[in-house]
Amino acid sequence: MAFPYITNTEEDRQVMLKAIGVSSSADLFNDIPHEFRNPTLNLPPPVSELELKRELEMLAGKNIDPQGWASFLGAGSYRHYVPSVVGHITGRSEFYTAYTPYQPEISQGTLQTIYEFQSMVSELMGMEVANAGMYDGASALAEAALMACRITGRMSVTVLDTVSPTYIEVLKPYLLPQGVAIDISSSKNLSLKQTTACLIVQQPNFYGFMEDMKAHAAEADAVGALKVVTVDPISLGMLKPPGEYGADVVTAEGQSLGVAQSFGGPYVGLFACKSKHLRQMPGRIVGQTVDSQGRTGYVLTLQTREQHIRRERATSNICTTESLVALATTVYMAALGKRGMQEIATLCYHKAQYAAKQISQLKGFRLTSSSPFFREFTVTCPSAPAEINKYLLSKSIIGGLDVSAKIPNGMLFCVTEVNTRVEIDKLVKELAGFADK
Questions:
Q1: Which residues have C-beta within 8 Å of that of residue 392, sequence separation ≥ 6?
Q2: What are the backbone dihedrals phi and psi of residue 191, each rounded to the nearest 5 degrees, phi first?
């Protein structure tokens, strides 16, 4: 742990104060009423740097993290190995401190990396065009729903109940204030209407299992609704890309592509669509061109937000891109290549199959679906998942996500390439031990 050292001397401060025309730093706060300045704070007395460092290390040590524990927790944030080249590239000062690339003449490197990001996302998803990145997977999906409403002129969206509950919660504040109705439906009772702007499906779904995308596409097409898919990008190293089953708009959370879990962010949303819907896409698009001397150059070619065009024609108020995180995903995909992506996906698949088979053979545990699954699967447990997870923590294992709110005694397990067979066997052993208690 290192602390930054601020080198400004008192003389430096006086020079800066004089330059801006004030006599002291207190003058900078004259607009704030006196009673609101310098409130009494209940803080402990000051300590030395050494004492502070020890205190912070002690507090950090209370966190349970996957570095020293076997973790089987997923549900939208995934533990994958991040090659060292990712940190090396993203840590370079020209990327790490770069500002949003409004001025192409000084931002060619940043613009090129965004262009490569868009190209890789398009190829991965089997779609015609991708934007420069969204905030995260949840807000990207909400933007896709609003985009579908603009394209179709309809004000209702249907969401399968197997879509992530947190994604559905994010949909509500985006859609409901704009008068867009949200219909949450199961696959068995799905009934789309002529007023439905889009059908939203997650593949694989939140509970880990595969959806019948061909059937869902046919149902959407029958009423002229768009097909919006939120997809697991790692799964595309093995599974058919959404473009091949007719998706109109595809979104994803890019965290699993070389980005650390980081307590939930910052992440990057992936967003791609058919080219005919390009002008309704939110955010920005970087294009490739040539300058007056025929040299390759990169520019922001589409910025459909209210800072750049008339407000009433803006497609979104998203005000930036997660360019640094998008760069991390770009480096990750470039480093792995097609074969590497396939290998990661294959490892996740086979390790998850092995874990599920072993767990489903234990007393009181069973898979909740017979559908194929990729790296996550849901099981019903003989006891409350909260009790099981508490027991697993005592054995240095981070268990699955408790989904009892939707599935009685349901637990969602995640297995990725970083989980060893020793870890999986230990999980199975401890679950068996709990069941026999």
A1: 398, 399, 427, 430, 431, 434
A2: -140, 95
- For 387, the 3-state DSSP assignment is helix
Residue 299: partners with Cβ closer than 8 Å, 6 or more residues away: 104, 111, 286, 287, 289
Q: What integer is the mean pLDDT of 262-283?
A: 93
Q: What is d(CA 286, CA 296) in angstroms, rounded to the nearest whole number?
A: 13
What's the confidence (pLDDT) of residue 316?
A: 80
Chain segment 147-161, per-residue pLDDT in tens = 999 999 999 999 999
Residue 171 DSSP class: H
What is the DSSP-derived secondary structure letter of residue 403? -
Type and span of the H or E element at 175: helix 165-175
The per-residue pLDDT for 304 is: 63
As beta bridge partners, residue 413 has: 377
Q: How many helices (H) and strands (E) does the chain have?
A: 11, 15
CB 368 within 8 Å of CB 404 = no
Mean per-residue pLDDT, 248-257? 98
Domains of the chain listed by start with CATH number: 70-78+338-435 (3.90.1150.10), 84-332 (3.40.640.10)
